[in-house]
Amino acid sequence: MPIVSISSDPKALTLTVVGEYPVSLERLWAAWADPRQLERFWGPPTWPATFTRHDMVVGGESQYRMTGPNGESSAGYWRFLAVEPGRGFEVQDGFCHPDGRPNLDLPGCHMRANFESFPGGARFVLTTRFPSVAAMEQLVAMGMMEGLRSALAQMDDVVAELRARFAGTELEVLDDTHARITRDVRGSLEQVWRAHHEPALLQRWMLGPDGWTMPVCEVATAVGETYRYEWAAVDGSARFGFTGTLLESEPPRRATTTEAMIGMEGPGTHNELLLSPLPGDRTRITLLITYPSKELRDMVLGTGMVDGMEISYQRMESVLAG
């Protein structure tokens, strides 16, 4: 069941949208937390959105632009006031100029999204509160209700995307060029960050199936630096590796890199690593991979990569526990 209702309350200065879907609460939350999924339904079909930033943490900011059928554009931002993973978030929502500066000539609003489970699925309730009657009337006159209705109607296809589980590691194929891998591991946020960035630790767990070593582990620690990882079979029968550049680094939470297989021509991938703390001294690892083509996506996923990552994550937990 898609959008259940869109209603306005002029006295309370609110506009409320309710959507229900036959998916888990975690899956519905992920559609809003992942910018590549969010941009597939935040803009109406004729005004698709592109998120250039989506820092879903308190004090973080999202920036996006919507492009019209004739090339015209409208930019906006969210400033996160509260984030409760899996339960809800609050943002200050507003328009901005092409360079990202808030556009104070147009009214902003306060937006709260709540998420909850129900038998057979999950729902979100999105409530927008306007600063004044004039602001509400202006935004409604600009087509806000119709825009939300047509934009959020696209969520049906987004939340129904392919998912597969490899033991504790989950793969989501989001579209032709995007895949997301998620794994919850035992270990604090700081421990898991170190495990991804300290050579001595990486060489103990990032090995895939048994029978491999990691003789080359050159880690990039500053933005702009390159890294190089190489693996060799214990019996000497094979060797391969990857190299790339560190594009963004926000310890101990987020890093983005390029990645290309050594010796393979053509464009590589763009990888975004996001670590999120969980209760009980656990951490969620989320890896969003952007492929240059569907063909490369299918080739890489068809190698058994995710199975190998699951084995590695199990090994990481053992290393951190020791």
N/C terminus separation: 47 Å
**Count of all domains:** 2
CATH architecture of the largest domain: 2-Layer Sandwich
Based on CA atoms alone, the radius of gyration comes out at: 22 Å
Strand order of the largest sheet: 9-10-11-17-16-15-14-13-12
Which CATH class of the largest domain?
Answer: Alpha Beta
Q: Any low-confidence stretches, pLDDT <50, length ≥5?
A: none
Mean pLDDT: 90
Main attributes of the structure:
322 residues, alpha+beta, 2 domains, Alpha-D-Glucose-1,6-Bisphosphate, Chain A, domain 4
Task: Write structural notes for this entry.
With 322 residues, the chain is an alpha+beta fold. It folds into two domains: 3-159, 2-Layer Sandwich (Alpha-D-Glucose-1,6-Bisphosphate, Chain A, domain 4), CATH 3.30.530.20; 163-321, Alpha-D-Glucose-1,6-Bisphosphate, Chain A, domain 4 (2-Layer Sandwich), CATH 3.30.530. The chain has nine helices and 17 strands. It has helices at residues 25-33, 35-38, 133-141, 144-152, 155-159, 189-197, 199-205, 294-301, 305-321; strands at residues 3-9, 14-21, 49-54, 61-67, 73-84, 88-96, 109-118, 121-129, 162-166, 169-175, 178-186, 212-218, 226-233, 239-250, 254-261, 269-278, 282-290. A nine-stranded antiparallel beta sheet has the order 9-10-11-17-16-15-14-13-12. Strands 1-2-8-7-6-5-4-3 form an eight-stranded antiparallel beta sheet. Strand 12 (212-218) and strand 13 (226-233) form a beta hairpin. The mean pLDDT is 90.
